[in-house]
Design a protein that fits this description.
Helix content: over 70%
Distance between the termini: 46 Å
Number of helices: 4
Number of strands: 0
Radius of gyration: 14 Å
Order of helices and strands: HHHH
Largest sheet: none
Mean pLDDT: 93
Structural class: mainly alpha
Low-confidence stretches: none
Length: 85
């Protein structure tokens, strides 16, 4: 595979993973989640978990690692949404 394809994939993985960090920090600081849909967050968290399993089954470490980190942020948001509801 061409190096530029790997670079595009890596940058995409970093962007879609790191974007959840500010949301997680904001919820932890403010203890408020009313602007977040429980259904949407639940489905997203499940989807991320399934992507991680997919990466594991394919032995694709970049897919697995990116989705495990995203899952950690997404699961944090989901748990806090349930807790602060």
């Amino acid at each position: 595979m061409a190096a530029w394809v790997e670079i595009v994939g890596s940058v995409a993985a970093v962007c879609t993973t790191v974007c959840w960090l500010p949301q997680s920090v904001k919820i932890i600081r403010e203890k408020r989640t009313e602007g977040i849909s429980l259904i949407t967050q639940s489905v997203f968290t499940l989807g991320t978990a399934l992507w991680a399993v997919y990466g594991l089954l394919l032995n694709n470490r970049p897919v697995l690692c990116a989705n495990l980190v995203t899952l950690a942020f997404s699961l944090t948001i989901l748990v806090l949404k349930i807790r602060y509801a």
